[in-house]
Each structure stands twice: as structure tokens, then as C-alpha cells.
Amino acid sequence: MHAATLASHLPAEAPPRELRRALARAEARRKWRAFALTLPLLLFLLLTLLVPIVALLQRAVENPEVANALPRTVRALDGWNRQDVPAPQAYAAIAADLGQLPDSADAGALARRLNTEIAGARSLVMSAYRALPIAGTPEEIKARLLGIDPRWGEAPYWQAIAKNGSRWTPDYLLASVDLRRDASGSVERMPPDQRAFGGILLRTFEISAVVTFFCLLLAYPLAWWLSTLPARKANVLMILVLVPFWTSILVRVAAWIVLLQSEGLVNRGLMGIGLIDHPLALLFNRTGVIISMVHILLPFMILPLYSVMKSVPPTYVRAAVSLGSPPLAAFFRVYVPQTYPGIGAGALLVFILAIGYYVTPALLGGADDQMLSYYIARYTNVEINWGMACALGALLLAATLVLYAVYRRVGKADLSLG
Question: N or C: which end of the chain has fewer CB within 10 A?
């Protein structure tokens, strides 16, 4: 209810305090109605965005396999110096824990988790599990386990159990940035031959930056040309820009495989006009990945640029030229600075979308062209290591948030300078 309508229904002698209270109640009802209208959207975002993100972050630090499967062993190793072989009581505890596992699937999950810490732990655990039941005094159980596999007498396997006895661990997040905990729990860098994810992350940023640059290089003149056309022509051509949105990414990638192969249209066309003598290698390398990603992401750069350019009055450049500025200088010194918000928004959108790409590099790239998302999928579907997959996902999420924060900070700085 509007304030004027509400005031007309009040007696003329109504005191100002009652009028203010009535206005406050009307404003509160208006806000609650607005909140009720947005509540379904808020619930949708909570269930589809926030809850999965929280679950991802939780799984990145969750470490339940050893704590659930070997509770007695973890207690027996409490206070162990992690240098020598543990006492016989630890052997008795692990035999009792393995005997309490419901089925072989739980033993397999334990073996896979320990195998990510030290190679050979899978066969070590499963051989002991298959030899159950193992009974007797702690000394007898120790001798029996050593007879099954002499590696039970090596400290590194017990160190892996002791290090992962907690239900929560930073190991996955540390591994995603090429760090690890040693036997004593101190954080250290991984050996050079085991450092992988730092280079993969840099490769992901490098490919995304190159794709963003070429998208901007192609989109800027096209968006400027569209902004100068009459509305009817611009709308018709904008439909052509939006056509890729109506086609599956998988279909577009498959089309590029056909176009870029040795006998494809691109190579045949270049050879037909005499630019090359033999087919170029455009598939299963970085070139094919960049070409396809630029084609897919180009509309995401055009749309922000076009929306900003339509709001820039063309009279500014004409005024600069009439005052003696060369046309090219007027364009870069008068027109381009006014399109910085569109450049920033388009570049941020394309870059963030590019760092999460999986299908295109997987189908068009080689072994050295895979981005971080490929390894997230690998740990999810092949290695069945959800903790590592979620840690890499958290790394991508952190990179996205940092980029967005930098963009907001730079955008505010530009506005303050303007």
C-alpha cells in the first residue's frame, strides 16, 4: 500500500507516531511479500548450488576409511614413535579390526585408501584379510602376519595407517598443490618426480588465457560492427551468434574433429589455395583444443561487449575527430575505454568457463593438453578417489573465487578513477 493511499485512510487528527507505525507495517508486509516471491529461487539455489559445494569441500578433507575400519589399530598406534616397527599389540589390533569388517568391500576401500599413501598396501591388506581368522597371543599374531607377508615388518606401511587414523585430513588439499605430510606430520614439498598438479594448474590457466585472448580478438570487432547496425539487422545477425547455444558441445567438438583431420575441410582448403604443401597436425594437440574452445566460448565474449557498446553514444568519437584527433586515435582513446566493463565481464566469463572445460580437451587434445577437469573426472571414475577429486574441485572453485574477487576489485578501482 502506498504511503499516500494509507495516509488518506487515516483520520486527519491521527498523530504522526501512529502514521509512522502504519507506514512501517505496510513496508514490512511489502518486504515479506517480496521475500516470499524469491523464496523458491533461494531454495533452488541452496539445494543445487550451496549444498553440493559444501559437500565437495567436506569430502575434500574427509578421511573415514582408516578410522572406520581400524579403530583398535589407530588406538594401538597412539604414542608410537613412527620410526621402529610397532609393538605386537598393534598386530593383534589390526587382525581384530580386519576380522570385524562386514565384507570384502570394506576391506577393499581400506586397501585402496592406504594404497594412495604407499604403493603395495592394497595387496598387503587384502592378503591379510583373505587369511582370516588370525588368532592367538599378540606375538603369535605378529609372527603369522609376517609369515603371510614380510612387509608387515616394515615401518612405512604402519606409518600410513597412523597418519590416516584421523577422520579429517589435509592430505588431499596438500596433494592438489604438490605438498604432503611426512611420517611425523610435517608439511613438505613432494619430490620433483611426483609434482604434477602445479604444472597442470598452470597449463589450465595458460590454455584458458590463450582462449580468452583469441575470443576477445575476434569478438571485439564483431560486437562493434553489430552495435553500429540498425536494430533490425543487428537482431538478425545476433541470431547467428546465438546459434552455437542451440547445439550440443559434444556435437560441435565432433564437427571440429571432422574439419581438422588430415583429410578434413580445413587442410584441404589450405592445400587447395596453395598455402601449405602437406596437411597440418591440427588434431590431438593444443591447436585443436584452442580452436574448438574459441568457437564454443566466442558468444560469451560477444554478448557482454555488445551490450556495453550499444550504450556508448557514437557522437563521442565524432566529437573527438571534429576536434582534430585522428580517427584511429579517437577510437582507442575515446571509445575503447568506455567498453572496459564489457571487456572485463566477457574476459572473466570466458576464462572461468574455460578453466572448467573437460570434454573438448579430452577429445581434441593430447596427453600434454589435458586440463584440471580431466583429472577430476579420472579420480572420480577410474581411480575411485573421491577425496582427491573433491580437493581438485575445491582448487578450481578457489581459483574462480579469486578471479572474481580480482575482477571486482579492479572494476571498483576503474569506477573510482572514472
Answer: C
pLDDT digits (tens, 9 = 90+) for 245-304: 788 888 888 899 999 988 888 889 888 888 888 888 888 899 999 999 999 999 999 999
Those residues whose C-beta lies under 8 Å from the C-beta of residue 399, and which sit 6 or more positions away, are: 201, 205, 355
Residue 275: φ, ψ to 5°: -75, -30
Closest CA to 58 of 386, 399, 416: 386
CA 200, CA 353: separation in Å to the nearest integer?
17
Q: Is the pLDDT of residue 2 over 60?
A: no
**C-alpha cell read off for 397:** 572453485
Alpha-carbon distance of 92 to 98, in angstroms, equals 10
Task: Give 357-372 as a 3 state SS string.
Answer: CCHHHHHHCCHHHCCH
pTM over 0.85: no
DSSP 245: G
pLDDT digits (tens, 9 = 90+) for 14-34: 567 777 888 888 888 888 888
Cell reading at 264: 578434413
Task: Give the H or E element holding residue 406.
Answer: helix 386-417
Please name the residue ranges forming H helices in 167-274: 171-176, 197-228, 231-242, 249-260, 265-272
Rounded-to-integer distance, Cα 360 and Cα 375, Å: 14
Vertex 60 angle, CA 59 and 65, to 5°: 60
Buried b (16+ CB within 10 A) or exposed e, 290-326: bbbbbbbbbbbbbbbbbebbeebeeeebeebeeeeee
Nearest to 227 by CA among 105, 99, 336: 336
Residue 354 CA to residue 43 CA, distance in Å, equals 28
DSSP string, 150-163: GGGG-HHHHHHHHH
Grid cell listed for 125 = 591388506
- Strand (E) or helix (H) holding 243: none
What is d(CA 173, CA 306) in angstroms, rounded to the nearest whole number?
40
- From CA 97, how far away is CA 113, in angstroms rounded? 16
Q: Which grid cell is 133? A: 581368522
Q: In the structure grid, which three cell numbers stand for residue 70, read together?
A: 581400524
